[in-house]
């Protein structure tokens, strides 16, 4: 089906394409925004609003008019203490925090209450062309799904659904929201039988909701000896995540879970000196195959 590829490509990676054009094509240098301001400027100061160079660079090669380019979205850098609703109010975002969330779903992840200082959010008023080229919004994706459900047998509907999985596949989140990190990965000492800490500890008080960092299948749910009550999830990419010392478990082995789905509550079961969530990323289901869990999550686009 020649239609598929054609439909998908323009949607998939507009930013990259923009950078490639700017980097290799001499013509891109004359873009009005960059030329006029001389702005390879320093990154936006915390909390300030600037025209986004990336968007502008992207918009121009796509033969958008100068007027449209000028209207290209501004960005906002999240500062400590921000929430989506605060930012929406402060920046008068039409459509409020929900619109802000929908426009920045890929940056923020599955939990709109969890944003981090330093994250760059796109503020409304995007040029229509740039808007379309950006990642599909939640609304358009669910519309695609609806269309798929209603019209699955109709061949014409098929190309529409193709864009959906590419975006959803890489969705990852933190196992707990807004919790500080205690003992880091690979801390050394006598507390660990391997000689180093095989995971990262989140300083979660008992009863904190513990979530699957990504979609997958529960392979272990129960007593894990010194890990106390633990859950291990296998993800689509073959990696495993482990959640230990839980006070309660709400899933069972074999169960499929989605990104952000509750697995249980944190606690202090097993070999611990106090309540926390011990979290590991592994290349296999068992102890000893650990990798740096925060580095892994960052690779998946999670801002930590
Ligand atoms: Zn630990």
How many separate domains?
3
The dominant shape is: elongated
Radius of gyration: 22 Å
Element order, helices and strands? HHHEHHEHHHEHHHHEEEEEEEEEEH
Verbal overview:
With 304 residues, the chain is α+β, with helices and mostly antiparallel strands. It has helices at 2-12, 14-24, 32-37, 53-59, 66-70, 84-90, 96-103, 105-108, 128-133, 138-151, 158-161, 163-168, 293-299; strands at residues 49-51, 74-77, 120-123, 200-202, 209-211, 216-223, 229-235, 240-246, 248-249, 256-257, 262-265, 277-282, 290-291. It is elongated. The model is unreliable at 1-70, 126-138, 154-158 and 160-169 (pLDDT under 50). Bound molecules: zinc ion (ZN).
Question: What labels would you give this structure?
Answer:
Membrane-bound Lytic Murein Transglycosylase D, Chain A, disordered N terminus, seven-stranded antiparallel sheet, binds zinc ion, 304 residues, 13 helices, elongated, single chain, 13 strands, three-stranded antiparallel sheet, Glucose Permease (Domain IIA), alpha+beta
């Amino acid at each position: 089906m020649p239609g598929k590829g054609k439909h998908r490509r323009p949607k998939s990676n507009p930013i990259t394409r923009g950078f490639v054009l700017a980097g290799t094509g001499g013509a891109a240098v004359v873009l009005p925004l960059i030329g006029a301001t001389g702005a390879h400027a320093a990154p936006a100061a915390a909390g300030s609003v600037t025209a986004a160079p990336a968007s502008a660079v992207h918009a121009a090669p796509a033969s958008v008019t100068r007027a449209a380019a000028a209207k290209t979205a501004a960005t906002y850098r999240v500062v400590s203490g921000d929430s989506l609703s605060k930012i929406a109010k402060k920046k008068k975002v039409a459509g409020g925090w929900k619109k802000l969330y929908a426009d920045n779903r890929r940056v923020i992840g599955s939990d709109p209450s969890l944003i981090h200082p330093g994250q760059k959010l796109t503020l409304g008023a995007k040029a229509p062309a740039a808007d379309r080229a950006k990642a599909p919004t939640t609304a358009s994706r669910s519309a695609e799904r609806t269309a798929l459900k209603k019209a699955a047998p109709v061949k014409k509907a098929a190309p529409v659904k193709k864009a959906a999985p590419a975006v959803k596949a890489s969705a990852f989140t933190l196992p707990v929201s807004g919790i500080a990190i205690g003992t880091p990965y690979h801390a050394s000492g006598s507390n660990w039988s391997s000689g180093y800490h095989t995971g990262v500890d989140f300083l979660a008080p008992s009863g904190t909701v513990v979530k699957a960092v990504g979609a997958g299948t529960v392979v272990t749910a129960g007593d894990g000896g010194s890990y106390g009550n633990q859950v291990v999830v296998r993800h689509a990419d073959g990696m495993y995540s482990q959640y230990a010392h839980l006070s309660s478990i709400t899933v069972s082995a074999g169960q499929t879970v989605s990104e952000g789905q509750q697995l249980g509550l944190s606690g202090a079961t097993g070999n611990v000196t106090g309540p926390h969530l011990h979290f590991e990323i592994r290349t296999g289901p068992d102890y000893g195959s650990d990798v740096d869990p925060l580095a892994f999550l960052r690779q998946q686009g999670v801002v930590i």
